[in-house]
Amino acid sequence: MIADGVEDEEKWLSAGIAGLQQNAFYMHRALDSNNLKDALKYSAQMLSELRTSRLSPHKYYELYMRAFDELRKLELFFKEETSRGCSIVELYELVQHAGNILPRLYLLCTVGSVYIKSKEAPANDVLKDLVEMCRGIQHPLRGLFLRSYLSQVSRDKLPDIGSEYEGDADTVMDSVEFVLQNFTEMNKLWVRMQHQGPAREKEKREKERSELRDLVGKNLHVLSQIEGVDLEMYKEIVLPRVLEQVVNCKDELAQYYLMDCIIQVFPDEYHLQTLETLLNACPQLQPSVDVKTVLARLMERLSNYAASGAEVLPEFFQVEAFAKLNNAIGKVIEAQENMPIDGVVTLYASLLTFTLQVHPDRLDYIDQILGACVKKVSGKEKLDDRQATKQIVALLSAPLEKYKDIDTALKLSNYPRVMEYLNARTNKEMANVIIQNIMKNKTRISTAEKVDALFELIKGLIRDLDEDLHDELDEEDFKEEQNSVARLIQMLHSDDPEEMSKIIHTVRKHILTGGRTRLPFTVPPLIFSSLKLVRRLEGQDESVSGNEASTTPKKIFQIVTQIIESLSSIPVPELALGLYLQCAEAANDCDLEPVAYEFFTQAYILYEEEITDSKAQVTCIHLIIGTLQRMHIFGVENRDALTHKATGYSAKLLKKPDQCRAVYACSHLFWLDEHDRIRDGERVLLCLKRALRIANAVQQMANATRGSGGSVVLFIEILNKYLYFYEKGVSQITVESILDLIELIRSEMNGDNAPSDPAADAFLASTLRYIQFQKDKGGAVGERYELIKV
Amino acid sequence: MPSRRRALLKVIILGDSGVGKTSLMNQYVNKKFSNQYKATIGADFLTKEVQFEDRLFTLQIWDTAGQERFQSLGVAFYRGADCCVLVYDVNVMKSFDNLNNWREEFLIQASPSDPENFPFVVIGNKVDVDGGNSRVVSEKKARAWCASKGNIPYFETSAKEGTNVEEAFQVIAKNALKSGEEEEIYLPDTIDVGSSSQQRSTGCEC
Predict the structure, then answer these.
(1) Mutate which of A14, A51, A231 to test chain B, going by most B C-beta atoms within 10 A?
(2) Chief location of this protein (chain B) (predicted)?
(3) What's the total number of domains in chain A?
(4) Cβ–Cβ < 8 Å for B70, B41
(5) Residue B129, domain member (yes or no)
(6) B67 inside 8 A of chain A by CB
(7) Whether B206 contacts A139, CB under 8 Å
(8) Contact between residue A162 and residue A226 where contact means Cβ atoms under 8 Å apart
(9) Domain with B145 in it
(10) Shortest CB distance from A217 goes to which of B32, B41, B46?
(11) pTM of the complete model beyond 0.95
(12) Looking at the structure, do residues A145 and A251 belong to the same domain, yes or no?
């Protein structure tokens, strides 16, 4: 009878249930007719079904549960019998006539339950008798279930503090003794099970044993529920007796499971007060037992307990929990030389979580744990094991989450040392965790020293640690991580300009190692951060920052120039040009004309030498015009030089419409509302006229190449510029020129070759509406508009 | 005398680890409470006599392990349940979210004859914690869920302070009683007269 198929098992279970039901049927009839003799006969026959050896624990449990339910009815019947005058002692004798031992013992336990309730004999006498009698079953599976039945029916009858079965002072002790004895016997049956049957079925047996584990563990649950088991009794009797059984059984499965049970079923306070006893058992377990998981669960439990409230923390201090756990972990790691590295890290991570919870102020403990971890992983290659790296990330993340402050982590000397052992991928992952933590908690990092340490910590994101890795990295991911570095740079801030300047220097040092792929992400935030500092300084009195060493806008502009120059090798001329223009504007605000001029020069050089794409030219020229328009510090000469160049570039764009638009935009360079120095109506008109000429050329080209007129939109755009300057009172812009322009637009639109262009129609209509609107508004401007008779 | 079969009502308490299943049972049966967390292993029951409409019933209340690793033998004890109590902790969202899983798991494993009308009772426990300030599951949300599952009766309790525990179990008992979850009627194929039943035992003669 080897390797029974699942089908066969189903068959046997059905047969068992059928037999059980049939006998239960007769038992019910006997119960209904108060026939004790038949009730005993059929219940014994019903219970015989539990004598099977053919079922796996799961199936046997199903059968057992059915018998269990039937026995409850029998129990009620016994109770009624006694109330009808039948002696419980007689019943107790009577059931022992059952022919087979297993049914006899089930019946005995059932009557025993009623016996205890009747209080005709001390509960402990009955319990002692029952637990002894159960020795009669030495078959592991049947014995375990029988004893679990005993445990269940006696569960609410154990003499305990305040229970109705409470007797003398020593009765709680008797209850404990009873449960411990049952536990010990069950554990023996359970452990012995592995040695029964052929060796080839060992695996199946182990699986079955594992399924049966809760029957044994439940005794510990029962012990934990006895109120009379106070700390004293737990410490002196329960724990030593249980541990003795655990250690001596020398069985891997039992030891691992029961240690877990002890930790889970007994309260935290007890564990703290008996920590040494519990921990001392660990090295005595079989070498194959997964002690790290046992310890990790213990620490997890205690951490949760510590987190439940500050009032419990003194308990931890009083028993020196940290020292004991630390010591125990050290011993376990030492004893288990072959423990995989992820196990080691798991243990340290659990201890760290515990320590953060119990001793948040003891950074030295935290550092000590990290140090121990470094010691263990050093001498090995970089960690590549998935499980281990996951654990390290958890280990390193824990202090960040606890303190919500990178500062604290930066104080831990072993923190960066642990990171050293991460492979490039994990190092980056950890760096990301750190940055996210800073973002989330809005941590302010305000000294250059800390910035230096931080960038050293997150170097995985700052530079290539491993060339191969970069190749396989997804571009989106790369962008994402570099963007987070950029955000981080923006977060660095010190109120002290000196320190801020140092921070900028430090960041520059680090990001310059990042190479061409990273600089376009990291340079801009640093430039903006520098310009922010410049603007801050600009508000200050010169005399305050008079001495040599102090930070001045000029000095910052120097470094900013160098930083932008670092982009030249990449090259990203558009980006650099934009940054130069930003700098020029900042220099403008600081009244540093030569500096601003220099920045413009740099921008122009880039434009001339590097920007060759015609689309890019269009974007850049508008940036240049826009920025230049806002500059007010330039003297006439400098300004002329720069505007001259800008108009020149505009007229040289490749596409005529682009030319036209850039040229009319240049008109703004000559008329600034807020500066009466810059009001040159002649040149405004020159720009607009030039733009008109180009627009004409566009029209003609369209006629020549396609035989139809081009879009008149350009003319309408120029008309709007005319109106703008007219409104501003530029005398060179006359009513006639506006009327002529409107006339020109209308004829272009109504011409034979004109394609219909709803967008242009709408644009013109709204422009005319604007004129009307200004007329209606009246006032000085309204009067001027009145002159335009459309 | 009432039918012996109906005199016993079986109630199963389910819910995540640490929501207070054991505490609810202990409060109801023994009027005792302990603040200490002690995991339950396997399944365990206590009984309590209840009077209902002049009849005496025994309530068999099964407390279960919330942690899966302490439920190694499976859930054969669900069989024949008359009512199922689903417990969650009003301070832990996940324990509420999991109610659905517990309910479905129960219906699959216990396979009652009329799953649509099988009586459940939902209990939101630990309402006393932090004066209700740490609460994350609102009564409204819980009641809405109960309504959506066929108007499951809902109670908010504190096993610690005994609030509403008695009331909840009264409804549990009442619903268990009228659940009508009859055991399958068994009729033997043949009726042996006088002869001892055949022995099909195998294995040793113990």
Answers:
(1) A51
(2) membrane
(3) 3
(4) yes
(5) yes
(6) yes
(7) yes
(8) no
(9) 5-177
(10) B41
(11) no
(12) yes
